[in-house]
Design goal:
The protein has 204 residues and is mostly helical. It has one domain (13-188): Ferritin, core subunit, four-helix bundle (Ferritin), CATH 1.20.1260. It has helices at residues 13-40, 44-70, 82-90, 96-119, 125-155, 159-188. The longest helix is centred in the last third of the chain and has 31 residues, at 125-155. The radius of gyration is 18 Å and the shape is globular. The structure holds fe (ii) ion (FE2) (2 copies). One fe (ii) ion binds next to α2 and α5.
């Protein structure tokens, strides 16, 4: 190749529908986990924050559903989505501090992945506008979850455990996400999380 122009063909509509179905699934399962957390956490202030957060995540799932419909498709089944893989690798924690630590890691990933996708030269304008909107919400999600992780940990004398769990979840989550990127490269020929958006499978 004589220049830096992308050599990879644009992703097909079918591949995008599959990817957006994975995003939709992650948002919906994220909301499901938050509902379970809200039922365990009896604090009146977090009840308010959880309610707003759950409303955001179900709305995000709906926005992905709408985007899929705009592309002329329907959501496809996601038997092995991000949250399921994470659940298999970690088990679902029962403790409030562990649950908050896990959610912080998941929210950080969502925000980062949406930013990476929006920055890709393969991202179309409509999807970019949606990703930017979602990324704004994800920032608030990380911030309130992080604050309350600290508050709950201090209340329980579990600050050290919170730090250990964050590091452990971060390490395992990142292995799972790397696997997901490999699969994405097989579907699309590249991953939207590849730093410069360049096709990793392109011949040299
Ligand atoms: Fe979300
Ligand atoms: Fe979120």
């Amino acid at each position: 190749m004589s220049n830096q122009a992308p050599t990879q063909a644009k992703p097909t509509t079918e591949a995008l529908i599959k990817l957006f179905s994975y995003y939709r699934d992650a948002e919906m399962r994220g909301a499901t986990l938050l509902i379970k957390m809200m039922q365990r956490d009896k604090n009146p202030q977090t009840q308010v924050l959880f309610s707003r957060h759950i409303a955001d995540e179900t709305r995000h799932a709906w926005l992905w559903t709408q985007r899929i419909r705009q592309l002329g498709g329907f959501p496809v089944e996601v038997p092995d989505g991000y949250q399921r893989r994470l659940g298999k690798a970690l088990g679902i924690p029962m403790d409030v501090v562990d649950l908050f630590a896990l959610t912080v890691i998941v929210e950080e990933r969502a925000a980062r992945r949406y930013r990476e996708h929006a920055a890709s030269p393969y991202c179309d304008a409509e999807t970019r506008a949606l990703l930017d909107e979602l990324t704004n919400d994800e920032k608030w999600h990380i911030s309130w979850m992080d604050d309350w992780l600290t508050k709950h940990a201090i209340e329980r004398g579990a600050e050290e455990r919170a730090r250990t769990q964050l590091a452990r979840y971060r390490r395992i989550e990142s292995e799972i996400f790397e696997e997901f990127k490999d699969e994405e490269r097989r579907w699309l020929g590249f991953s939207f999380s590849d730093a410069d958006g360049s096709p990793v499978l392109a011949a040299g």
